[in-house]
Amino acid sequence: MEGTNKAQTPETSDGRPPLEIWGGIECTINRVGDRFPDQLIKNGHYARLSDIDALANLGIKAVRYPALWERNHQNPEEHWNWLRPRLTRLRERGVNPILGLVHHGSGPAHTNLLDPGFVTGLGEYAEQVARQFPWVTHYTPVNEPLTTARFSCLYGHWYPHKTDDASFARSLLIQCQATRLAMKRIRSVNPAAQLVQTEDMGRTYSTPTLAYQAEFENHRKWLSLDLLSGKVVPGHPLWERLLEWRLTEDELLEFANDPCPPDIYGVNYYITSERFIDERLDRYPPRTHGGNGKHAYADVSVVRASTDGISGPGGILEEVWERYRRPLAVTEAHIGCTREEQLRWILEFHNDAQHLRSQGMDLRAITVWSMLGAFDWCSLLTRDENIYEPGAFDVRSNPPRPTAIARLTKSLAAGKVEDHPVLGMNGWWRRQIRLVHPPSTPEQPRKYVSVNATRKPALGRPILITGATGTLGQAFARLCEIRGIPYFLATRQQMDICRPETIESLVTGLNPWAIINTAGYVRVDQAETEQERCFRENATGPAELAKVAAHHGIPLVTFSSDLVFDGEKRAPYVETDTTFPLNVYGASKAQAEQCSLELCSRSLVIRTSAFFGPWDLHNFVTVTLDKLRKREPVQAPIDAIVSPTYVPDLVNGTLDLLIDGETGIWHLANRGQTSWAELAWAVAERSGLPRDIIEPRPLHKFHLPAKRPLYSVLGSSRGEILPTLQDALNRYFDDISAVRGPFDAAGSSMHHPISEIPCFSGKPFPASNPRPRL
Question: Active site includes 585?
Answer without folding.
Answer: yes
